[in-house]
């Protein structure tokens, strides 16, 4: 495999060296990556200057409060991108962000023609609570972090390695190992002086996935128990204030106007009164139940399990747990892995004549 | 469950199930009055959110009636609907929300008897299940 090794004192320095070299030596127009923000967070940014990238770029921030696929899509979704085929952007995304971006590309809210995806083998990120306790944590420490300190979605991640990416990054004690996955990736790595090397990516993957698999199974069983029936669901969502933050930050919630914020779901006062008369009261809890169930119905099949919905919640409702459970069963039913294959259509845009024959008869 | 009368909402395709319901009426075929029909242009036009809303508003069951595969007025709307219903059933099953309360049925425009039988059976099925758990009392 075509491989490029970048050695420097530690992972962060090697990453900064990589950002610089891409902008200096490869002829790419820009890189899209996370940078140190004014506060504690790491907003995504488009950077064109090698020195700046070397100064502020961060490969693996210790936390994840947003999905950078949204930012990349925001930059690329205007039609002009398709026309300027010469544009070349190298995007550094976590696997869940890359998967979300592939889904957005299918939805014509992004384009991979002008983007080259580089994804790290992702150790995950700290839960927001842990991050607030200890903001200073080195990238190396992330790899040896106790899983209880990680976000739920990272702790049980099924794809710490992106199923689709142009270049994968593996980590060594003192640097990075970049492995080309596509022709596009090969061209970039060649321009940076990569060489053929024997690397067994599969064994690296297996090690990483295995450790999370058990935690995932346990988590899903636990969620299944908590979310049993409408009573379980109501209790689970008890603290939800229907603010829709989870939807706004969801990378695959692609509608520009959410159905649940449209006039379609607004009812006449008489409708509410009729329910109040029937049941003794009309609780607006049902509105949030409709929102969450509806979003599961619309989005679970595309959910990349990035967990941003949970971090977005002001009242610490574990929205992710609900999505993890439902997306797992729905995606298995359609044998669909979001973000894995670029030309695989979205499940709800296609049908097969010979499927679900038991329904309707 | 004595005294429990199920309230069922039927999303019926204009081209087949609605026609079958009309014919069942003119033929005076007996079937219970528990089903409130809503005519839609095609079952493919039904968003799962509409079905969820109906459940949350207190329906005990939802029947979706569409054209037999191959007979859709819009060619494949019913096959799209089948996929969506399959997904919604899977979600209801995963969350323990009684998928037996949602039924998809192919009813051709001339199948008045099948329409009456389907409504009969579904009402009985829901009667056995009792009131929807989404109802608070």
The chain-level structural class of chain A is alpha/beta
Largest sheet of chain B: 4 strands, parallel
Query: In total, how many beta strands of chain B?
Result: 4
Helix and strand composition category of chain B: alpha/beta
**SSE run of chain A:** EHEEHEHHEHEHHHEEHEHHHHHHH
Mean pLDDT rating of chain B: 95
Beta strands of chain A, count: 9
Q: Note poorly predicted spans of chain B.
A: none
- Globally, the shape of chain A reads globular
- Low-pLDDT stretches of chain A are none
Q: Nearest-angstrom radius of gyration of chain B?
A: 14 Å
Topology pattern of chain B, helix = H, strand = E? EHEHEHEH
Give the strand content of chain A: 5-15%
Please give the share of residues in helix of chain A: 40-55%
**What integer value in Å does the Rg of chain A equal?**
22 Å
Number of helices of chain B: 4
Q: How many structural domains does the protein architecture of chain B include?
A: 1
This entry's quaternary arrangement is heterodimer
Largest interface comes to: A-B, 45 and 38 residues
Intertermini distance of chain B: 14 Å
Envelope shape of chain B: globular
Detailed description of the structure:
- The complex is a heterodimer of chains A (361) and B (137).
- The mean pLDDT of chain A is 93.
- Helices cover 43% and strands 12% of the residues of chain A.
- Chain A is of the alpha/beta class and 361 residues long.
- With 137 residues, chain B is of the alpha/beta class.
- In chain B, helix 1 (17-26) packs across helix 4.
- The longest helix of chain B has 18 residues, at 77-94.
- The chains are: A alpha/beta (361), B alpha/beta (137).
- At the A-B interface, helix 11, helix 13, helix 14 and helix 16 of A face helix 2, helix 3 and strand 4 of B.
